Amino acid sequence: MKTLPDFDFKNKRTIVRCDFNVPIENKKVIDNFRIKEILPTINYLIAEKAKVILMSHLDSPQGKDKKYSLRPIAKELERLLDKDVKFLDDCKGKDIEKQVNNIKQGEVVLLENLRFYPEEEKNDLIFAKSLAQLGDIYISEAFGVCHRKHASISALPRLMPSGIGFLFGKEITSLSRARENPDRPFVVVIGGAKIASKMKMVEKFLPQADYILLGGKIANVILTVKGICLGRAWPEEDIVKIVEKIKLTDLKVHLPIDVVVSPDEKTGEYIRETGPALVHKEEGIFDIGPETIEIFEKIIRQAKTIIWSGALGLAENEKFSKGTRAIAEAISRNYDAFTIAGGGDTIKFLNQFGLYSRFSYTSTGGGAMLNYLAGEKMPGIESLK
To answer: Which of 24, 111, 146, 154 has the most CB atoms less than 10 A away?
Structure first.
């Protein structure tokens, strides 16, 4: 893959595919980690007198829902860059082409949410060609979504001279250390709510890792399929097939042996700790229990490489954050291990707990990080080769 020094950017319209999928409340960015990580590339392009065209997605809107506009991100970029950032209210079309062609060397524009068009997620070639009309060079800084076969990730870089930015390069370099020959014991901690993608990663890591510690919804699904937690919603068949391959007797795999439950996830009333087999039908499982925390901590203390992605419970609710916090602190205290955390929510919790700087590396990707570490082929990398 080509890198920034391989190009002459002077007076070139340079498309930078970013991952600005960040939390926004009241039209303000509340966590700018992913934005700050891309600043070195933007500043380099400004210094090289490029015409900088930033594009990104935000969430998964159904049509052009202004709730998911990137306008607040343009304002945050202006603050961080201390420079005007022009926001364009669309990402394709003749009017946008005209405005892009009028920008000057060193200027920065941000296009509107790519996912306002369903063609983006469908990897539509015609949509990719319309984006290609806006630039002369394509630079990817969207490592966090490079496992997605989307138009701006997979098709667009094949239509023009393409390369990667500083952040993308840093991701590959840092994660390769754990991917190629990890120091052992090698421990993978997986939680979060994206069950389908995370479950596939559990399957991939089974032959590679020494221990896999599971929490969050992914653990709840396994406990359901294995007949331990009764009265839960049954997952999709492709997920069931993966779970059936996981043996509860496998010494690598560790599921919660006790859990924190409540009938109300918002108020957290009537919280109690119990075994997974003793959860009442009206109760939800929202955290791992103290015995599980103790077992997970013991394994983490012995580890030499630790990968973590996803909260181990409903950690955004303080009443259910104990498990996630305890495991994050346990990982951060293992100073002898190479520790990696990834994903927007995971990084948010590290910042919330004041532990961000105590990890060896923090990745902008969650699913992308796990895919790369598991050796998966990724559309957003293959298209750049």
So the answer is: 146
